[in-house]
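User: Sequence recovery, please. Input:
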């Protein structure tokens, strides 16, 4: 939580992953007061899979499903009105109001009661974060000036406290519901999307056979295998086009310390971190430090403008496929910014070094 990232986890296309599995049937019905005859969308982890028009707030959906997974309903319109829930084979019912859809009551399977229980706990943790960010923003005058070391330490200490609370909360939930598919879903959301390998492993070990065999349980198992490709000591390599269209291999930079930085022009936290990376590059490039930035952009113009505006004068590559890039899948990139520092032999020696931590590590290596 100490590093804000833009994450892909809630936009995973589950419907494709479920296609080859034995299918059951779901029946989703609902009554939303104040909805009238508006259009309502059914999403499966961010992907629209169906839509219908409500009649006086009443609607229904039917479809195939193999096992419990995370869905959401979203009402049409500029204002974001949605509610997330777990749907399983059988009947699920939604009852609520259009102006407060997020508070709708979901019935039909035990998982939504568990999910709501988690949301209460998580809400108590995130409520503490807002004043911390507001204080930091005030200290930096909206990002226009650098906050004092004292203010930064207060913020980072606060974030560490919230991380500790999160670890305790997820551990308690997984211990209480070791067979529920909600448990691995939360583990993915907290410790995979926001990488925390230690807590991912600890909470994964608490899960029972059913939870590990759920869709989200299998995703975690798959992630752990992929994570070995970027574990400390691993030697990742890939080939992708640079800004001129020429294919460049990561291994071509061996002989130098290399930062492999996954980012995107639309990623606010990435852009905020770029000045720190520029500073490190300017200070250590002549001493044997290089960078390969891998963009998750899909629009080349936006990518090029961001590179120029942020004065990023090193190696840049992208296949312009965004989250659908084979590199993203192969190396388990679930969020941006994500980075790996490689030694001169191309082996991973550190991950996600930000700000002063990157400079400190480079200083240590260059001595």
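Assistant: Recovered sequence (367 residues):
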């Amino acid at each position: 939580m100490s590093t804000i990232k833009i994450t892909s986890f809630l936009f995973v296309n589950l419907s494709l992953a479920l296609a080859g599995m034995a299918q059951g049937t779901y029946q989703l019905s609902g009554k939303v007061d104040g909805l009238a005859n508006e259009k309502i969308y059914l999403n499966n982890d961010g992907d629209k899979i169906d839509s219908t028009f409500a009649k006086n707030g009443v609607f229904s959906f039917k479809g195939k499903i193999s096992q419990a997974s995370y869905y959401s309903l979203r009402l049409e319109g500029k204002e974001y009105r949605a509610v997330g829930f777990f749907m399983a084979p059988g009947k699920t019912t939604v009852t609520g109001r259009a102006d407060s859809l997020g508070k709708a009551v979901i019935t039909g399977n035990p998982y939504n009661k568990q999910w709501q229980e988690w949301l209460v706990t998580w809400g108590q943790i995130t409520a503490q974060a807002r004043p911390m960010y507001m204080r930091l923003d005030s200290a930096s005058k909206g990002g226009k000036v650098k906050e004092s070391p004292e203010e930064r330490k207060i913020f980072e200490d606060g974030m560490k406290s919230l991380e500790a609370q999160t670890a305790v909360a997820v551990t308690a939930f997984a211990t209480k519901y070791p067979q529920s598919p909600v448990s691995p879903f939360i583990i993915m959301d907290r410790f995979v999307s926001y990488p925390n390998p230690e807590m991912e492993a600890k909470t994964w070990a608490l899960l029972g056979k059913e939870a590990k065999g759920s869709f989200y349980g299998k995703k975690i198992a798959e992630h752990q295998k992929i994570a070995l490709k970027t574990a400390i000591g691993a030697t990742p390599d890939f080939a992708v086009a640079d800004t001129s269209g020429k294919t460049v291999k990561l291994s071509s930079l061996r002989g130098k310390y290399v930062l492999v930085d996954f980012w995107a022009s639309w990623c606010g936290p990435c852009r905020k971190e770029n000045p720190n990376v520029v500073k490190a590059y300017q200070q250590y490039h002549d001493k044997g430090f290089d960078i390969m930035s891998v963009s998750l952009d899909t629009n080349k113009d936006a990518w090029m403008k961001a590179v120029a505006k942020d004065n990023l004068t090193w190696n840049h590559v992208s296949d312009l496929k965004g989250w659908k890039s084979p590199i993203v899948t192969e190396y388990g990139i679930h969020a941006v910014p994500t980075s790996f520092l490689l030694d001169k032999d191309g082996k991973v020696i550190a991950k996600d070094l930000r700000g002063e931590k990157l400079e400190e590590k480079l200083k240590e290596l260059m001595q």
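The radius of gyration is 22 Å.
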